[in-house]
Amino acid sequence: MTSLLMLVVTSCRETKQPTQHSTDQKVFSPQKQLGWFHGSCLVIPDQPVSPATNVDLVITSEPQSVLKAKIGETLTSAPACQPLADERKGQNARPGTSFYAIKNAAPAATDMGIAIVDPPHEVTVVNGLARTDLTSDGHYDVFSSCATSEGINFSVWPQKANSGTPLWTQSYYLGYDMKPTCP
Amino acid sequence: MPTKSGTYWVTWANTHAKDSSSVEDLVDPFKSNVKSFIKALQDTGATVNVTNTKRSDKRAYLFHWCWLIGLAQAQANQAGLKPGVDIQWDHGNADKSKKGAKEMIDGFGLAVPPNSTNAPALHSNHIAGKAVDMTITWTGAIKIKKKDGSEESVTFMSNVNQNTKLHFVGATYGVKKLATDAPHWSIDGH
């Protein structure tokens, strides 16, 4: 009976075993280690990142996919960095925000998604959805994007997208009007 | 002589069909209302950074149709005409027409499905000159004058979408906040 109960509890929780990456005890900081990208331009909202730092790119396509890349040189303008286009930079280039080229990977020009700087664990794709345990709490975190009236909202959620409070969210201002899709 | 769709039109639009960031390009009475609201904010020491006001209808036309044709959601011969934009969407071959439009999607940096499942709009408050995108910052609490002259104490919030007191003050000037997009204020909140 006890064994059966343990089996039920285990199967109802989306858990993962710690990976070899979790042996270092660094605490993951969503504000410092999460950003977003459009094409080959990576946007880190909170602080500068050293060149050649590892970054995992979660492309919010259907199905989602993951690219392993490195931080490249600083970008200062479009077209190399679309978030810095004339009609966009006023909102996207907020104080403290940094823009980098993506190296060692080649996202398509229309690819967008969420970037994990110095990722603590492997990102895997299961049933079309990327997931990883960013906070090392034993639960998978998942990724989503949706359109607002003038931009894209990128979010990371504990366990299930659009449920509860996101672990992290950032907006990409596109500077044109569209019908929103965000819930 | 029309020019076929493709990267040429990205360069063209970035020269001849740019959006404005000047409040002067808005239409009255919204323009006057925005000026009054901004003055009330600045009088209290707030910093107002206007980034986008009237958007080009020609630019919106190019965005709209390149998105639809490039993503195969419309045929090139379905695109309407736009005075002042002498573009040839139909290259006489569906694949070439799609390729030309796709070059424009990439060049303009448009969001595509699943990030955005709807084409860029042809009509909006921005295009009509009835919306403004701006960032408003200050420290602590300030007293902002409403249109009737009375004051409202408003505390700064990093998420402006949640600052309903600021939204209330703006609304007294006829400048209404869209609560889903941080910089966006308009004549009707859309």
Could you say which structural class the secondary elements and strand pairing of chain A correspond to?
mainly beta
Strand-pairing-aware structural class of chain B: alpha+beta
DSSP summary: helix tally of chain A: 3
Largest interface: A-B, 37 and 40 residues
Kindly state the number of beta strands of chain B.
8
Total strand count of chain A, please? 11
Alpha-carbon Rg of chain B, integer: 20 Å
Assembly state of the chains shown: heterodimer
* Number of structural domains of chain A: 1
- Please state how the strands of the largest beta sheet of chain B are arranged side by side: 2-4-8-7
Q: What's the layout of helices and strands?
A:
The complex is a heterodimer of chains A (183) and B (190).
Chain A: H1 2-12, H2 30-33, E1 34-38, E2 41-44, E3 54-59, E4 65-74, H3 86-92, E5 98-103, E6 112-117, E7 124-126, E8 129-132, E9 141-147, E10 151-158, E11 168-173
Antiparallel strand pairs in A: 1-2, 1-6, 2-5, 3-4, 3-6, 4-5, 7-8, 8-9, 9-10, 10-11
Chain B: E1 3-4, H1 7-16, H2 30-43, E2 47-52, H3 57-70, E3 87-88, H4 94-108, E4 131-137, E5 141-145, E6 151-155, H5 164-172, E7 176-177, E8 184-186
Helix pairs in contact in B: 1-4, 3-4
Short description:
The complex is a heterodimer of chains A (183) and B (190). Chain A is mainly beta and 183 residues long.
Could you please describe the fold and organization of this structure?
- The complex is a heterodimer of chains A (183) and B (190).
- With 183 residues, chain A is mainly beta.
- Chain A has one domain.
- Chain A is 12% helix and 36% strand.
- Chain A is built from three helices and eleven strands; from the N terminus they run H-H-E-E-E-E-H-E-E-E-E-E-E-E.
- Chain B has helices at 7-16, 30-43, 57-70, 94-108, 164-172; strands spanning 3-4, 47-52, 87-88, 131-137, 141-145, 151-155, 176-177, 184-186.
- With 190 residues, chain B is an alpha+beta fold.
- In chain B, the strands form three sheets. Chain B has a four-stranded antiparallel β-sheet. In chain B, strands 1-3 form a two-stranded parallel ribbon.
- Chain B is elongated.
- Chain B contains five helices and eight strands; from the N terminus they run E-H-H-E-H-E-H-E-E-E-H-E-E.
- The A-B interface holds A 38-39, 60-62, 78-79, 82, 85-88, 90-91, 94, 109-110, 112, 145-152, 171, 173-182 and B 14, 18-19, 21, 49, 51-52, 55, 59-60, 63, 105-107, 109-121, 124-127, 133, 135, 178, 180-184, 190.
